[in-house]
Amino acid sequence: xxxxxxxxxxxxxxxxxxxxxxxxxxxxxxxxxxxxxxxxxxxxxxxxxxxxxxxxxxxxxxxxxxxxxxxxxxxxxxxxxxxxxxxxxxxxxxxxxxxxxxxxxxxxxxxxxxxxxxxxxxxxxxxxxxxxxxxxxxxxxxxxxxxxxxxxxxxxxxxxxxxxxxxxxxxxxxxxxxxxxxxxxxxxxxxxxxxxxxxxxxxxxxxxxxx
Length: 211
Fold this sequence. Notes:
The chain has seven helices and seven strands. The protein has 211 residues and is α/β, with parallel strands linked by helices. The protein has two domains: 7-59, no CATH class; 65-207, 3-Layer(aba) Sandwich (Alpha/beta knot), CATH 3.40.1280.10. It has a seven-stranded parallel beta sheet with strand order 3-2-1-6-4-7-5, sandwiched between helices. The longest helix has 16 residues, at 192-207.
């Protein structure tokens, strides 16, 4: 049986209390949640479901894009990027570099999201090449095309750099494409997690079935 997520990390004011008896005969439901109530930050259709059941359901309809993040300086944005990846139903989140990252920003969504680790950029690029998945670098640096007018590949992985330094030269050079988000104000860049959410939503606009 899967333990309920830590309430301090995932409690929401939109939860539900204990399920009235008799309980439904549904193997997807978690008896502990039926007894105690479900305060997790999940959509209503997943109330009282076990974590394994939710992941299994998501796995039947994940989108064809992945997300990758370079993590050389313990980037605090990774948790928020993972949360957005869950919201937009990314296939996998790839973390390049350090395996440690601040999971609080993920709001426990990392438990529902596939996460893979790569020791360095070369290992990541080789793995994506072997899988036939184009790598799209996202950075507002010379040579980038605007994502607003680009044809985004349906099956791809979006590669993001860290807050501040952005992507490494090795990552940009090894990518199959290079896109940036159009900006119009005085700031040089936007927050890395905000950029990731915009890019994922851009994929959704072009490829997702909204019916």
